[in-house]
Write the structure tokens for this entry.
Amino acid sequence: MPKAVNKVQLANGTVLMDTSSVTVDAEHLVSGYTALDASGQLITGTAEISGGSAIVVTETPDSHGGTVMEITAVDLSQDTVAPQYLLQGYTAHNRMGQAITGTASGGGGTISLQSKSATPTESEQTITADTGYDGLSSVTVGAISKTYVGSDISRRSSSDLTASGATVSVPSGYYAEAASKAVSSGSAATPATTITANPTITVSSAGLITATVSGSRSITPTVSAGYISSGTAGTVSVSGSDTEQLTVQAAKTVTPTKSSQTAVAAGRYTTGAVTVAAIPAEYITTTDATATASDINSGATAYVDGVKVTGTQVIQTYYTGSSAPSASLGNNGDIYLEVVS
């Protein structure tokens, strides 16, 4: 149903119709006739004419479930309904039961009213009829969009939220309390790691070799899309030691002999001093000897400058006697001198 209008006014200020002061209602309008009341609403009369009075019948339910009918005669002598309050071409009856014809018009012709629509905004709007219309018959204001909550703000939902790793990004806008975003679980893959460390090597006096190594490296794993709670990065460390016992030769004293001797066997580590004893008394150096074979009695031997020399010298003995020597006297080459008196 169109909205009732109780006043029509042109843009230049001319009032075409104004029913705001009308006091007529259905009870005071002759039955069967219509008119506009003070709000501009079309009403149909219910009053029955009886001389200069109208009979008003009122029905009221009683407490017993019945109806109490009250008939009242209303004085119609004080009438405020006038033709100027009725549109031209329409008729009504005043309180006296007299027929009246409306004279209100838009410049003597039929009033041309416009129906308009308006979109709600954040600013106040004044809606007026376009050129060629005497006024507005209705103004329809559109509904506010369900996604509109204010300037530059749109309503958003959970689908507008984005997640990367442990971070949820929330774009600007209006969200209902239930808006949420599930963060998927990710996984971390630790890359292969090579730790290079130079060992520290020590050798004890007993030939025990100890090698010690330690090293560390920071590890950053490859993480797939999703949220990783903890334990995905850190430092990998390696340490350890090992020992190896060398084959050892303890302290040893070597006494020179005619034969060669091994002071330390091959493949052994000497843990103590190797002492070469003094040359025994029976062993002397012959480097300063000057004798030759001719200096040594024939058949005798000697060492000269480290070389064994056999003597070639012949020693002759001189004998004297008064008789011929016996065969057992001396050696070959000896000289015997017989003295004759």
Observations:
- Residues 279-341 form one domain.
- The radius of gyration is 74 Å.
